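SAMPLE LOG
Freezer: B-3
Tube label: C17
Construct: single chain, 168 aa
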Amino acid sequence: MATKQSIINKVDTDLASNSNIEATDHRGVLHGASDSIIDNFYGIVTTDNSNTSSPSNTGIVSPIDSNYNYGLDITKNGNRVNISGSIRNDSGSILPISTLFFTITDNEYLMQTSSGDSSFYGVACKGISLSGAYEDITLRLAGNVLSIKDAMPINSIYKFSLTYNTIN
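STRUCTURE (predicted):
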């Protein structure tokens, strides 16, 4: 995925003025690289999983504690990101309010801030219990960190989806 500026730079470089632009160069700008225009319109789903038996860390997010597992599908379209997936409490105890699960670490996926202070900008969503025995919980992504706003029962799994704008 690319930033707006990296796409502008690619267009300016590969489609220079007063040149005989080859069709392959034009196609390369539209769909040939990680900073292509088409990929930025339609987005690529990236999967990130902190499960200790089969982790797959993309570098977009970083886990905070190995007992708090997650499985994520992350899609970026332009400057809008959608993260959907699930979180799981494998810690052996009830997780208290404000427990942190992961941090967004990739610069292209960092949250847009309000008044330059990301601590006041956030997105909340409901985590829907997959076990059926528990109440739904609220999750919040703020300051590039996902936290829970309700206590999370032992061995519970919650599915969620949230969308936010990036700074890039």
